Amino acid sequence: MANPPWLLPDWPAPANIHARITTRQTPGISLPPREHCNLGNRCGDDAAAVAHNRASLIDLLQLPATPMWLHQVHGSAVLDADGSVASGEPEPEADAAITRQSGVVLAVLTADCLPVLFCTADAGKIAIAHAGWRGLAGGVLEATVAALDADPAEVLTWFGPAIGAASYEIGEEVRQAFIDADADAASAFTATRHGHWLCDLDSLARRRLAAIGVTRVSGGGFDTRLDPRFHSFRGDPHCGRFASLIWRSGG
Question: How does the average pLDDT of the chain come out, rounded?
Answer without folding.
Answer: 95
